[in-house]
Specification:
The protein is α/β, with parallel strands linked by helices. The chain has a single domain (6-189), classed as Vaccinia Virus protein VP39 (Rossmann fold). 34% of the residues lie in helices and 24% in strands. The protein has 6 helices and 7 strands, in the order H-E-H-E-H-E-H-E-H-E-H-E-E. It has helices spanning 6-16, 33-42, 55-67, 84-87, 117-130, 148-160; strands at residues 23-26, 47-52, 74-78, 96-102, 131-141, 167-172, 183-189. A 7-stranded mixed beta sheet has the order 3-2-1-4-5-7-6, with helices on both faces. The radius of gyration is 15 Å and the shape is globular. 43% of the residues are buried.
């Protein structure tokens, strides 16, 4: 069996941490592919919160979720992921099973409108604050656009600086692929 691609492995890690009825967050909904994976993993009784700063991305995701008949279990927020902790209801704070990030720019759209290291790092901290024990944060990072390498470095340094007692942090990337392949960081909050 071939080694899982970065995106497949990210989805595998996020969905392995989720059970029906769980709460998940897509921090960068974009075209909604990751949101749909999460919505399927949490099932009818679960909830997914999704964030994006572009109205176009929110609409595209809304359409995708509706077409897959999972819109009712999702709440889409047109706003920055750095505010995610404030947007989530009190009942689900520290109860989130998975938070996914897919950084960079919206495919097929303005490639200069990208995630930025400063807000990304603040959103990553927010993501850890809402995780339940055993919950995971997945971060897919692209280095092929301007600002991408600096963001990848910032995410790596953030993950490497996390307490080993509180979190497991993993870096997953192919080292012999051409054309700036994506990279993944996965962080799991340890069970108490
Ligand atoms: C690579 S795309 C996401 C792809 C998406 N996950 C999918 O499955 O299609 C990155 C997205 O991050 C969004 N973004 C940029 N800055 C953001 C922020 N501060 N908060 C939330 N989303 C942001 C962009 O608008 C863009 O849609």
């Amino acid at each position: 069996m071939p080694i899982q691609s970065v995106l497949e492995f990210a989805h595998h890690q996020a969905t392995a941490a989720l059970a029906p009825g769980d709460v998940a967050v897509d921090a960068t909904v974009g075209n909604g592919h990751d949101t749909l994976v999460l919505a399927r993993a949490v099932g009818e009784e679960g909830q997914v919160f999704g964030f994006d700063v572009q109205r176009e991305a929110i609409q595209e995701t809304r359409d995708r979720l509706a077409a897959a008949d999972v819109a009712e279990r999702t709440t889409l927020v047109h706003g920055g992921h750095e505010g995610m902790a404030k947007e989530l209801p009190a009942a689900v704070q520290e109860a989130v099973g998975a938070v996914t990030f897919n950084l960079g720019y919206l495919p097929g759209s303005d490639s200069t409108l990208t995630t930025e290291p400063e807000t990304t790092l603040s959103a990553l901290d927010a993501a850890l604050s809402i995780l339940r024990p055993g919950g995971v944060v997945t971060v897919v990072v692209y280095t092929g656009h301007e600002g991408g390498p600096a963001e990848a470095e910032a995410v790596d340094a953030w993950a490497a600086g996390l307490s080993q007692e509180a979190f497991q942090a993993l870096s997953y990337r192919f080292v012999n692929q051409k054309n700036d392949p994506p990279q993944l960081v996965v962080v799991q909050k340890r069970e108490e």
